[in-house]
Design a protein that fits this description.
alpha/beta, TIM Barrel, 4-stranded parallel β-sheet, two-stranded antiparallel sheet, 9 helices, about 40% helix, about 10% strand, binds NADP nicotinamide-adenine-dinucleotide phosphate, Aldo/ket_reductase_CS, NADP-dependent oxidoreductase domain-containing protein, NADP, oxidoreductase activity, acting on the CH-OH group of donors, NAD or NADP as acceptor
Length: about 240
């Protein structure tokens, strides 16, 4: 199953996220996922990132390059045939609006955190209205990993998802992913386990009813679970 991007290219609705994966495990995992049918891989976080802090402990980034300049450089990659589609990530409505204003090539995708506890309906609808596909990163709310890493709770433990899982004879993860698909977002759940690779892919053989979608809509806690910048020692939202 694929979604057609605003430039006519297609992108699979489900992808595999590999952030927080052990380097050696990734190879086998990707080979197994290809056998299952995955054709979309999100490689964010593969490799190392140096600290973004200067010696004074303050965020040390180049302040002479704007996002617009970066975007035009990315457009250059499309013009020279090096990439087909370009997108943005973790852009809120204002950054997205700005990008729409200065771009010659519109972003094909905005990859943002969204799941039943952090639905971001305004941003999702805004992007979709302007032809930008929303890819949901952290579509399971990070499950147990975020409890461990960030001390947050996971939507997979919520009674609503558990109840729907029982009703549809699926797992809470499959319900969360199916909900993501039905709101027309692309989903990139991460797992390091073969069984879950299969489980997360088996979300095309059932459909949540309107009433059940409504139940999930009411679960929203506006609860951001994920702050990758914390690994570089900064809190982007402070
Ligand atoms: N653009 C960005 O800033 C950004 C930020 C964060 C993430 N991402 C991308 O989004 C991907 C997914 O995000 P994420 O890894 O943070 O969160 P996630 O996919 O919501 O959750 C991953 C966690 O869920 C567990 N899990 C996977 N399938 C499960 C299932 N069926 N039942 C129960 N638990 C399950 C995984 O454990 P096991 O591995 O043990 O199965 C892992 O602990 C990342 O890998 C990355 O590619 C992008």
């Amino acid at each position: 199953m694929a979604i057609t991007l605003n430039n006519g290219f297609k992108m699979p609705i489900i992808g595999l996220g590999v952030w927080r994966m052990e380097g050696q495990l990734i190879k086998d995992l990707i080979l197994n996922s290809i056998k299952i049918g995955y054709r979309h891989f999100d490689c964010a976080g593969v490799g190392t990132t140096d600290s973004a802090l200067g010696e004074d402990g303050v965020l040390d980034i180049d302040t002479t390059i704007s996002l617009e300049t970066t975007w035009h450089a990315m457009e250059g990659l499309v013009s020279s045939g090096l990439v087909r589609s370009i997108g943005i990530s973790n852009y809120d409505i204002f950054l997205t609006r700005d990008c729409l204003a200065y771009s010659k090539i519109k972003p094909a995708v905005n990859q943002i955190e969204t799941h039943p506890y952090f639905q971001r309906e305004s941003l999702v609808k805004f992007c979709q209205k302007h032809g930008i596909c929303v890819t949901a990163h952290t579509p399971l709310g990070g499950a147990a990993a975020n409890t461990e890493w960030f001390g947050t709770v996971s939507c997979l433990d919520d009674q609503v998802l558990k109840g729907l899982a029982e009703k549809y004879k699926k797992t809470a993860a499959q319900i969360a992913l199916r909900w993501g698909i039905q709101r027309k977002t692309v989903i990139i759940p991460k797992t390091s386990k073969l069984e879950r690779l299969k489980e997360n892919f088996q979300v095309f053989d059932f459909e949540l009813s309107k009433e059940d979608i409504e139940l999930i809509t009411n679960m929203d806690k506006k609860y951001r679970t994920n702050q990758p910048a914390k690994f570089w020692g900064i809190d982007l939202y402070a």
